[in-house]
Prior knowledge:
Elements: H1 3-17, H2 22-34, H3 38-43, H4 51-65, H5 70-74, E1 76-79, E2 82-85, H6 98-106, E3 113-118, H7 124-132, E4 136-142, H8 145-158, E5 163-167, H9 171-174, E6 185-188, E7 196-199
Parallel strand pairs: 3-4, 3-6, 4-5
Antiparallel strand pairs: 1-2, 6-7
Amino acid sequence: MSLDALLKQAAQRLLTAGSPSPRIDAEVLLCHILGRDRTWLYTWGDKMCSPWEHARFDALVAARVQGTPVAYLTGQREFWGLRLATSPNTLIPRPDTETLVELALSRAPMPTGRLLDLGTGTGAIALAFASEQPGWQVLGVDLREEAVELAARNAQTLGLVNARFCTATGLLRWKPMMKPGRFSILSSVILLILPLVTLI
């Protein structure tokens, strides 16, 4: 079966299952399997895929039909132009969270400072900020060791040496970090609190 036909079939399955973006989901999943980008896919849609690629793609589409997010299926998500590894141990970085990065950057006109990101997850906010402000020291903190390890791997992959990550065993451990003067900016998306950026 050609890649175009495979995509059309998968997009129909995803549409029937209620995906809000069936064609894009199918394209992202197929690109992941093929190790190619979407431009290549549009250019070479008449190519045939191997039986292994077809079977693997079908398995991913079936998982997406069951509701598994695309970012968990591919193990990555782009945020602020950075490719971040993802896992079910963290929330998936959302495009609308980029407004939090914009707000933090607008409050950070000085060349140096310190940002604390509570509930860092994949490190998306911390790493986006660190990529824009290389003179700043950024600390991402999370309750889950798996999240901290993932964020640290993302920082290493991106080569962002001004961002580091650590765990806190409870909310009380975070309190000393929030003392006035310790950090220039505090970012938090912990629990169900709306994203907040404040100068402290």
